[in-house]
């Protein structure tokens, strides 16, 4: 059997763990922290020209102040549809329309809501940790197959340590991202 049949695909494991981090960052971006962010509108789709379209494709999204998001809708006929999509999105924001500009004032979060959001952030982080551990488990299964195919114990130890190091690095990144997000949420 050739030596490359005994190789573990670390690049694939790295890519999949990075994917878990990317998903976590996307989840964190959608959490409303009382501070305006254009990314909070990313999941909202508008019925434009018969198709579900992201808001940033029907207008320009800006954050002129820390607690205000504005959308300059390009087509006047879509202003009401954009407004309706925002109200139905569950963001809890009441849009204010001025011509083709929709203003979204971000309300202050109370202490109780902040604590709820930190718990939600922790759940997102735990989901990311589980995803990283699942990738680690897949890597360890590849290692077991390689052992059955004749990989030496020294090589197994090297690969095991590399997979574990990759896992530990990603778990630490997740923990750091969670700490940052919880700190951001609790800031008044």
Notes on the structure:
The protein has 188 residues and is α+β, with helices and mostly antiparallel strands. The chain has 2 domains: 3-29 and 110-186, Ribosome-recycling factor (Topoisomerase I, Chain A, domain 4, Orthogonal Bundle), CATH 1.10.132; 36-105, Gyrase A, domain 2, CATH 3.30.1360.40. It is built from 4 helices and 6 strands, in the order H-E-E-E-E-H-E-E-H-H. It has a 4-stranded antiparallel sheet with strand order 3-4-6-5, with helices on one face. A hairpin with a 2-residue loop joins strand 5 and strand 6 (101-105). It is elongated, with a radius of gyration of 23 Å. 24% of the residues are buried. Residues 24-186 form the Ribosome recycling factor domain. InterPro entries: Ribosome_recyc_fac (IPR002661), Ribosome_recyc_fac_dom (IPR023584), RRF_sf (IPR036191). It is found in: Cytoplasm. Responsible for the release of ribosomes from messenger RNA at the termination of protein biosynthesis. May increase the efficiency of translation by recycling ribosomes from one round of translation to another.
Q: What count of structural domains?
A: 2
CATH topology-level fold name of the largest domain: Topoisomerase I, Chain A, domain 4
What spatial form do the alpha-carbon principal axes imply? elongated
Strand order of the largest sheet: 3-4-6-5
Main sheet summary: 4 strands, antiparallel
Helicity, as a percent range: 40-55%
Mean pLDDT: 87
Number of separate strands: 6
Q: Could you name the ranges where pLDDT drops below 50 across 5 or more consecutive residues? A: 1-5
Strand-residue fraction?
A: 15-25%
Q: N- to C-terminal separation? A: 62 Å
Q: Quickly give the CATH architecture of the largest domain.
A: Orthogonal Bundle
The CATH class of the largest domain = Mainly Alpha
Rg computed from alpha carbons, rounded to a whole number of angstroms: 23 Å
Give me the strand/helix succession.
HEEEEHEEHH
Structural class: alpha+beta
Please count the helical segments: 4
